[in-house]
Amino acid sequence: xxxxxxxxxxxxxxxxxxxxxxxxxxxxxxxxxxxxxxxxxxxxxxxxxxxxxxxxxxxxxxxxxxxxxxxxxxxxxxxxxxxxxxxxxxxxxxxxxxxxxxx
Length: 103
Hints:
Elements: E1 3-8, E2 14-18, E3 27-32, E4 39-47, E5 56-65, E6 70-73, H1 76-79, E7 85-91, E8 96-102
Antiparallel strand pairs: 1-8, 2-7, 3-6, 3-8, 4-5, 4-7
């Protein structure tokens, strides 16, 4: 089952794209659909501990995706979230990104 998202910086700069119990992620396709600007994207694992600070591990950090292009992340060993971690995406305030999570 794939998950689909349209993320705009103005409606939610950080969005959970794969909950902690999601298994077998094969790829993430990130597409910049903004008409006039490049997008800056960070994808990361984060846990949500009951107490204490969250642990964050970046998959990609502040990668620029040019207008009308896509970035495919398909290394399954890198996309395998540690137990109890979800996958999140952060986009810039004026960015518009389509995300497809394939599993």
